[in-house]
Amino acid sequence: MSVQSDIKRLTAPDIRARKNGDPIVVLTSYHAHTAALADKYCDAILVGDSLGMVMHGMESTVPVTLDMMILQGLAVMRGSRRALVVVDMPFGSYEASKEQAFLSAARVMKETGCGAIKLEGGRRMAETIAFLVERGVPVMGHIGLTPQSINTIGSFRAQGRDEADWAPIEDDAQAVTQAGAFSVVIEAVAEPLARRITAAVPIPTIGIGGSAACDGQILVLEDMLGLSPRVPKFVKRYGELGPSIEAAVAAYATDVRARAFPGPEHVYRLRTKGK
Ligand code: KIV
């Protein structure tokens, strides 16, 4: 017997079917409350390992653990009802072997209830992606700039800005496609290359610093809200929450120091008889 739920989410096959269709809207979220807001407008929500840098102030995503991803994945599942929730596999949880990848992905899916996982890497991860997909794990690929490789690539710099460097990135896109990924994130690659890959592969491409021609776009929520102190060139700021939050915190501090908060409307009076 199953318990029916009124939650009807988009699935990985729904997103896969959007190739060449209406643009796919994706944002990251790590919290229940921001997930509830994103859920109204997004087709998918990524619980990105960028949470290490954005929430925890780490220098890179490398230190992020599977437990951190599961905790925030659960929060996002609680906050959302409609979007496909994709949880990032953190560095060290999937690269050693395809079996390690399956065990980690199974934990993420069982413990969060998410609908898909994402992992970084093209050709080098193709065998792992195929192994996961054959065993019931929908995989979103991630090629171009792969931030978990920061210690081997040296900097978060855009990829494929010389045409001579395109072939390996195109091969990565083909490899994740043939391995069975339902979509692929293309991060920080030259615009004409992102456009060309989008035309070449039959799965949706989700651009971040890619091209408007990609089948969808993703941004890190805090970056587009103006909460991150430094953002890459590809981020468009849709809000300036940093200054608003600072103004609110400053006003609160002033009120507390002046004993202007709490006011009469914020305190509990004694009960009056008969009420
Ligand atoms: O971790 C993340 O937020 C990501 C996106 C930038 C695609 O991988």
Q: Would you spell out the secondary-structure blueprint of this structure?
A:
Blueprint (H helix, E strand, L loop, with lengths): L11 H5 L7 E5 L3 H8 L4 E4 L3 H4 L11 H14 L4 E5 L9 H15 L3 E3 L7 H9 L4 E6 L5 H4 L12 H14 L3 E5 L3 H10 L4 E4 L7 E4 L1 H4 L16 H17 L18
Parallel strand pairs: 1-2, 1-8, 2-3, 3-4, 4-5, 5-6, 6-7, 7-8
Helix pairs in contact: 2-4, 4-5, 5-6, 6-8
- Which sequence of strands runs across the widest sheet? 1-2-3-4-5-6-7-8
Helix-strand pattern, N to C? HEHEHHEHEHEHHEHEEHH
Largest sheet: 8 strands, parallel, barrel
Question: Residue-averaged pLDDT, rounded?
Answer: 96
| Uncertain parts | none
Can you put this structure into words, describing what you see?
The protein is an alpha/beta fold and 275 residues long. The protein contains eleven helices and eight strands. Strands 1-2-3-4-5-6-7-8 form an eight-stranded parallel β-barrel, surrounded by six helices. Strand 6, helix 9 (191-200) and strand 7 (205-208) form a beta-alpha-beta unit. Helix 4 (66-79) packs parallel to helix 5 and helix 5 (98-112) crosses helix 6 (126-134). The N and C termini lie far apart (49 Å). 3-methyl-2-oxobutanoic acid (KIV) binds next to strand 6. 3-methyl-2-oxobutanoic acid (KIV) binds at residues 28, 46, 48-50, 88, 185, 187, 208, 218, 220.
